[in-house]
Amino acid sequence: MTTRFLTSGENLRHSKKGILITATDTGAGKTIITALLGLYLKAKGYDTGVLKPVETGCNETEGVLFPEDGAFLNLYLSPDSSVEETTPFRLKLPLAPSVAASLEGKTLDYSRVVAFCKERLDSYDITLIEGVGGLLVPLTDDKMVIDLAIDLDIPLLIVSPDRLGTLNHTLLTVRVARAEGLNVCGVILNEVSMSSDISRETNIRELKRLLVDIPVVKVPFIEGKFYPEKFLDLSREIRWEPIIENL
């Protein structure tokens, strides 16, 4: 793998109407990062929309599937919205959407997912769309998360957990995105735990060295409950500016 390949900026798609927040793996903290970025944009005066169009692993209560991530985003960014408006496509099993839908005897209509997202992109200054897992997670039998970014023509923000292995996973994700001509507007190196990991001493430095034209921003581990005031203060402490400027 060469630095020159990773910094190639040819044929990138550019759009300022939306960002797809993806990750190198599940459990990287996409939902928290989406909420923090949304709070920052709102504080800057942007009319900001937020979606998690597809969510799996939803708990069922009285026949209704409840999307915890979608509800979390609503709490901080769109308290007047219903979960149906933020996360209309919900599945019960905690699996890739295509697999969950198959096992539940359901069909996820990809064209409806795209149409839903496009409608919201036209409704706000900027819309944050949280994906499902990583770029190559299958949404349907023949469509993946990366296809959604391509069809929506919006840049990617990659969330990477700050732990051993993140260099490989992050560079693989960037390479796949760049191969499809997508603009990676930034990488968030997210501390997902307090556990000791010697790689944290070098991960940020190495990613900045290898991804010289992509902003790499570190987000510290968030302890305790996510109180609104604390969350807003934290959103102001993160260096979002290089990412926004790179859209």
Any overview of this molecule?
This protein is an alpha/beta fold and 247 residues long. The protein has a single domain, classed as 3-Layer(aba) Sandwich (Rossmann fold). The chain has eleven helices and ten strands. The protein has helices spanning 3-6, 30-43, 68-77, 83-86, 97-103, 110-121, 145-152, 166-179, 203-210, 228-237, 241-245, and strands spanning 18-23, 48-51, 54-55, 59-61, 64-66, 89-90, 126-134, 156-161, 184-190, 216-219. Strands 2-7-1-8-9-10 form a six-stranded parallel β-sheet, with helices on both faces. A two-stranded parallel ribbon has the order 3-6. Strand 9, helix 9 and strand 10 (216-219) form a beta-alpha-beta unit. Helix 2 crosses helix 10.
Gist of the model:
Helix 2 (30-43) runs parallel beside helix 3 (68-77), helix 2 packs across helix 10 (228-237) and helix 8 (166-179) packs parallel to helix 9 (203-210). The protein is 39% helix and 19% strand. Mean pLDDT is 91; it is low at 1-16.
The whole-number mean of residue pLDDT values reads 91
Tell me, briefly, the overall form: globular
User: Strand order within the widest sheet?
Assistant: 2-7-1-8-9-10
SSE-based structural type: alpha/beta
